[in-house]
Amino acid sequence: MGQWLIEWAKKEVVLIVATLLAIVSCFIVRPDAQYAEYVHWNTLTQLVSLMLVVAAFQRIGVFRIIASKLLQKASTSRMVILVLVSLTFFSGMLVTNDVALVTFVPFAISVLIMAGKDEWAPLVVTLMTLGANLGAMLTPIGNAHNLYLKALIQMPTLDMMAIMAPYTIASAILLIITIWIAFDGKSMKEVTSSSDLEKSVLAPSPDKAQPDEIRIMGYGAGYGGWRTWVYLALFVICLLGVGDIIPLWLMMTIVVVTMIFTDSRVFRNIDWGLPLTFAMFFIFIGNMKRVPEFYSLAAHFVQFDPLDISVLTSQFISNMPATLLLAGFSNSWTELIIGTNLGGLGTLIASMASLVSYRSIVSRFPHKKGKYLAIYTGMNILFLLVLLPMAHIIVGLTA
């Protein structure tokens, strides 16, 4: 019990801190009727619905099966790495950066081990992590904090995407250039053309419980392809809800009821700590906004330079908590959107999703931990040194 509690505390540090802040703030502003207005239910509704659908896709192994099929099209080391990084870059836009990394980083490490390219792991995983964080910043559903900002300010989806599009395009160019410089064009057909690629990577022990409940034709107990189509329909419904085309209550109802009948275990597979963290921050920020001295000081601090303050704050508390905190004291929404997204670059904790990659490296290659941290930090600083000045120029021109 004690060990489990320690492991849980390590995993949910942000939730614990947010809860403590919320509790302390309740002594400053005693609970009253206004507390009901603190929680942004639209954000939580969208977040939980998307988490359920994405977890359902994970449980039937759709993402990894797609990955193995794409990888079989690559013939050189350069193209293999490009496929792996593209998987996190584009999937991050649709299923969030952390899900992209949870799904594809272990897959990539297995591919590298099969190819005898273990030494590439720190750089490849770093590029995949950059890809996930930079790809996810384009869409409201790519990051939880983007979803919150969109719901908070009621910004149309296309408008929000237009703000981040230049940085997404620039990021893609930087990633491609890096891959072309760092990797050669030597053949890897002996790995990618193997008929056992999908099975050996996705289900190394077919007689045992499969990772992510993967069901592949030919082995394992099949769920049948109909679930894929049902979950795809639910994902479209979520997009309609996020896009303000259908009511959020209808979106949530359809998703929850469908999951109860198709795969009720999915409710145990999502990270409930994330919406709880949001709720705790909502309480803390709601209370502190009612303290005139604190509100005035915080608002003055944020307005000094919203773009740089967002990036800087993210380096210490990660960009999701930074967004929840700073959004309560600023109305410079464009700068806040750009700053909190670019703020995912930098330190290892600037984006909590990056810890997924770090844990994967440490668990498989503990002796490469130092090398990974050096490469990760160096590459993140390099990308930030390009994208942040670019942001200042664009914001300055559009002000």
Automatic annotation (TrEMBL):
Keywords assigned by UniProt, alphabetized: Cell membrane, Membrane, Transmembrane, Transmembrane helix, Transport
Top-level taxon: Bacteria
Transmembrane segments: 12-31, 43-67, 79-108, 120-141, 162-183, 229-260, 272-288, 336-361, 373-395
Keyword Iron on entry: no
Cross-referenced InterPro entries: Cit_transptr-like_dom (IPR004680)
GO annotations of cellular component type: plasma membrane
Domain Citrate transporter-like: 4-327
GO BP term, example: transmembrane transport
Subcellular location: Cell membrane
Entry keyword annotation includes Transferase: no
Its membrane topology: Multi-pass membrane protein
Protein name: Anion transporter
Record organism: Alloscardovia theropitheci
Taxonomic lineage: Bacteria, Bacillati, Actinomycetota, Actinomycetes, Bifidobacteriales
